[in-house]
Task: structure prediction
Amino acid sequence: MAKQLPTKKQKLVSKKEDKSNKGLVAQVEDDLESIGVYTYSNRNVAKDYLVMPSDVTEIENSELGKYFTAFTNQKLYVRNLVCQSGMMVRELNYQLDAIRARVYSTLPAKMSVKEKELTLLNDPKAEELISHINFLQEKYNMLSMHLDNLVDAITCISREITRRENDMFAQNRENNISKRR
Result:
């Protein structure tokens, strides 16, 4: 007996079920990958070069390039994490809104918003979601600050590279002028 292939409708239902089991971040990443956009990871970052040296001016040129590359790669990765944590916060807020609507619907209409919020905190699922949202929000804040720090480090390294290029250009110019004399 031949095995029947699923119909187009069955395939669509199956895809919807697959998406409903995944979180928002996984769904967005899958969607982006389907069009050839892959999110950034830091698997290829030389982690030894993610600590700023105490004096950038003492670093060899080739080492300076490795620092620049490592910090830039890490910045790309952290920016991706900032985006993902923001999406996770929004996703959990949607879930909390659904619980809030369910809890509020059972309460009297004349009850104050503060009292309703206090009642919401008695719901174990809501309490867990709020705790997780707070954690993710702090993670988002910390990642945002870390991203700013990476930008500052890249700027410092870039300035040193530019200074060295300018020094080299000035030295070459000086040599050319002295040869003409």
